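Weekly modeling sync, notes
Attendees: S.R. (lead), two postdocs, one rotation student

Agenda item 3: backlog of single-chain predictions. S.R. asked that every request posted to the team notebook include the full sequence so nobody has to chase files. The rotation student volunteered to paste the first one in as an example of the format we agreed on. Action items at the bottom.

Example entry:
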Amino acid sequence: MTVNVLNAKQAPYWFSAVDRTIRSAIAWFTCSLLVLMVSFTIYTVIMRYIFHDPPFWGDTVALFCNIWLVLLAYALAVRDREDIASEGIYEFLTPKTVLVLRFAWRAMTFIFGVLLFWFGLDAALNVPGQYWELGGLPKRAPMMVLPICGVLIALVTAFTLAEDVFGWRAVEDFQP
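Predicted structure, as returned to the notebook:
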């Protein structure tokens, strides 16, 4: 149920403020993870091929940064309505069918977020073992990205659904 910007109402201030805060926090955190991932990779490569003394933890930490980056950035894609690449088939369907399909995709994404939180939390809390190369870090620590990502996906999908149901648009959409 994509809202036509010309017919849309301005979203309430609290809605826009919370939305902007969540988007900014996710973007800042994912950008930081990208910088860390590249830094750890460069450091590991330099230490391996120039100094012949690679850190044993470098690849593991870079991998964690990569996984967290991808999973958390998915919430931004959902919020920006760029999560499903099925726009090509919509030109063959009626506008009403397109609205129903888009709403159904968003509802399924919300359910996916809730399930990812539920089962991800169970998996993270019950995974045995530790990473000896990271000083005995419990395996549950990096796996906590699953419930965090699930909460974020459900939250941003709820915001998207609220915009569609109430016909809201963020303040930025009304500016030229």
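Discussion: group reviewed the output briefly. Residues 110 and 175 are 29 Å apart (CA to CA).
Action items: rotation student to repeat for the remaining queue; S.R. to check formatting next week.
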